[in-house]
Structures are given as C-alpha cells and as structure tokens.
TrEMBL record:
Residues 10-334 form the Enoyl reductase (ER) domain. This is alcohol dehydrogenase. Keywords: Metal-binding, NAD, Oxidoreductase, Zinc. The lineage of its organism: Bacteria, Pseudomonadati, Pseudomonadota, Gammaproteobacteria, Alteromonadales. Gene3D superfamilies: Medium-chain alcohol dehydrogenases, catalytic domain (3.90.180.10), NAD(P)-binding Rossmann-like Domain (3.40.50.720). SUPFAM superfamilies: GroES-like, NAD(P)-binding Rossmann-fold domains. Its EC number is 1.1.1.1. InterPro entries: ADH-like_C, ADH-like_N, ADH_Zn_CS, ER, GroES-like_sf, NAD(P)-bd_dom_sf. It comes from Pseudoalteromonas luteoviolacea DSM 6061.
Length: 337
C-alpha cells in the first residue's frame, strides 16, 4: 500500500510502498478514502511536544474509509461500513476516566498517527471499539475533518458551558477554528473570530462570525474588552503562545478560557486577576466517542460543514509547508486515489 512516512523529525515525509497491515482480534482494516491534515500532524512530524512519537510513523488522525477486513471477534461492525479513525485509537476501558465516560483522558490511550500508524495511507488498522460510523449523507471528504477538528471544537464549546445568547471568542480560525465558529453559531452563541488576513477573516464572516478581529492589526483582548466588555468564554485554537495570553485577557469576570491549541510553550497567567475575577483556565483534549457522534450529527443535519480543499497524498509536504505559513483556508483533506 502507498503511505506517507515520517522517518526523521523536521524532514519531509516520504511516499512509500509498504505491506498492508493485517487484522488481529479487536481490530478492523480500513481502506482509507481520505484523511484530513491536522496541525497536530505537523507537531508530530517536527517532534514539537515533550512526548515524542516513535519513528518511522504514518501520521494522520482524520482518516475515513470503508471496512475491508475485521477480526473474528468484531461483531458490531460489518465489512463495507464507512467509519472514521480518530486521534483516540484506543483507551484502556477500565481506569477511573474510562469508567466515567471520559476516555479522552485515559492515561493508557494510544493515538492514531502518533503512537500507532494513522491515516496517511491507503489502508489503516484501527481498534474496532474506537472508530465511529459516518452518517450516510456525509461524503468521506466532508466527514474527515470532523474526526479531529470537529469533535475537538464541539467538545471545547461544551466544556466552556457558554449559554445561547452569550459571547464567545474563537482565537485561530484555521482547521479547528472554522468549525468552532460554526458549532458555536449552531449552539446559539454570538461569535468573535480572531485570526489574520482577508482570506481567513472573510471565511470566518461567511461561516457566521458576528465580529472579526485581525490580530496583526489590532490587539484582540483590548478590542474585546472595550467593545464587548469581555466574552463569557474563549476557545484558543491557535498554535502560538501570543494567542494564549490574548485569549486569557479576553474573558470577562467569571469567564472561561479553554485551551485547545498546542504550541510547546508556557502560558503566563496572572494569579491576582484569575482569583479576583473568578476566571477558569481549562484544557480540552479532543472528545469522546459520544462527542464524536453528536458532532457528526450536526453535520449530517446540515448545521455545520467543513470547508475543504483536497490534495493527493503525494502533496503532503507542500500541504505542511502551507500550514506552517498559516495559508490554508479551512481544512486540507488528502485523498488516496
Ligand atoms: P491550523 O494551522 O489549521 O489553524 C491555526 C490557525 O491559528 C491559523 O488559521 C492561524 O492563522 C491562526 N493563528 C496563528 N497565530 C494566531 C494568533 N496569534 N492569534 C489568532 N490566530 C492565530 O491548525 P489546526 O489544525 O486548527 O490546529 C491548531 C492547534 O490545535 C494545533 O496546535 C493543534 O496541535 C491543536 N489541536 C489540539 C487538539 C486538542 O484536542 N486540544 C486537537 C486538534 C488540534
Ligand atoms: Zn487533530
Ligand atoms: Zn482508561
């Protein structure tokens, strides 16, 4: 099978022909039709984070396709089913977090395209218990970005507990952010989008953002405080340290700052303001299978639609280059044929 493989951090991926993985008990083999490119894949291939993936690695955690083989013990899925393979490749199923239905917090989880091979390939092995079926009326290309960007931002907004009619800010209107704007609007929230450049901000506006701020032209926190008195919640999806301080200073008293983007940096948080203003700073990591089902339902109902450009798998290095320079509108989805 054809796959894009990372052999060395910060080096281009190579397109190779590898043996197709074989199904084992508890697994399914998916013929991948498409796989979204998440900024996390770029962090993985650059070795940006404290816990590094083992190389060689096939990245990708927004892979979608058709089940072509399954372990003998897999009874709840059928050959031909259309599924997506999310970041959460598997969890232990019996720790405190798994038992509470928070499998995204399991300390014994495996991650697609990070600790195990992912979707930048024609075939991908997945854990049968952690894939989620794609609603019939969604195409592979439309569904792919929902398996990370969609579920992550949908979950972050749930974590924010912002209520209809309240204002939220979405900092970073890229792959995650452009979906966050749509989920927020579908939830009845008022949205301020923060990013830079006409092509990002005009898309944000088209997708329903009520107000847009170019972070290269204005100080977003200052504008949000003076014009709106602060927001109830901010979801920071940018991969830049500067964005996080700005996000923190955008919330009002009692507000919540939800951290989603993953630059390898520390975030300065003033203790005095946090205490006196009752501000919460909360990390949010992807979502559970139930979150994923709900987030797909929004798309199936036509309330949310990923803005997608497709590229063949072979172009992954150019796509990473574009991502590095913040040039992508919405999500790029790699297609396998
Ligand atoms: P992306 O590159 O598609 O989008 C990032 C956006 O942030 C771009 O549009 C860029 O222009 C914008 N940006 C950069 N600096 C900014 C600033 N100072 N203020 C406002 N916007 C700014 O990336 P993505 O795929 O959306 O991923 C974003 C981040 O989220 C990455 O760090 C990724 O690893 C992380 N992530 C986290 C989770 C999670 O579960 N917490 C899940 C997926 C991705
Ligand atoms: Zn991702
Ligand atoms: Zn667990």
């Amino acid at each position: 099978m054809k796959a894009a493989v990372a052999h060395q951090f910060k080096a281009p991926l190579s397109i190779e022909s590898l043996a197709q993985p074989e199904v084992k008990p508890g697994t399914i083999l998916v013929k991948v039709a498409a796989c979204g490119v998440c900024h996390t894949d770029l962090h993985a291939c650059h070795g940006d984070w404290p816990v590094k993936p083992n190389l060689p690695l096939i990245p990708g955690h927004e892979g979608v396709g058709t089940i072509v083989a399954k372990g003998d013990d897999v009874n709840h899925l059928a050959l031909g089913d259309k599924v997506g393979i999310p970041w959460l490749h598997s969890a232990c199923g019996h720790c405190e977090h798994c038992l509470q239905g928070n499998e995204n917090l399991c300390p014994n989880q495996q991650n697609s395209g990070y600790s195990v091979d992912g979707g930048y390939a024609e075939y991908c092995l997945a854990n049968a218990d952690y894939v989620v079926k794609i609603p019939n009326n969604l195409s592979f290309v439309d569904a792919a970005p929902l398996f990370c960007a969609g579920v992550t931002t949908y979950k972050a907004l749930k974590v924010s507990e912002a209520k209809p009619g309240q204002w939220v800010a979405i900092v970073g209107a890229g792959g995650l952010g452009h979906l966050a704007i749509q989920y927020a609007k579908a939830m009845g929230l008022n949205v301020i989008a923060v990013d830079s450049g006409e092509h990002k901000l005009s898309l944000a506006k088209e997708l329903g953002a009520d107000y847009c701020i170019d972070y290269n032209e204005h100080n977003p926190a200052e504008q949000i405080q003076t014009k709106f008195g602060g927001v109830q919640a901010v979801v920071c999806t940018a991969a830049s340290k500067a964005a996080f301080s700005g996000a923190y200073h955008s919330v009002k008293r009692g507000g919540k700052c939800i951290l989603v983007g993953l630059p390898n940096d520390d975030m300065p948080i003033p203790i005095f303001d946090t205490v006196l203003k009752g501000i919460s700073v909360i990390g949010s990591i992807v979502g559970t299978r139930q979150d994923l089902i709900e987030c797909l339902d929004f798309a199936a109902a036509g309330k949310v639609k990923a803005i997608v450009q497709t590229q063949p798998l072979e172009n992954i290095n150019q796509v990473f280059e574009q991502m590095q320079h913040n040039e992508i509108q919405g999500r790029i989805v790699l297609t396998m044929e």
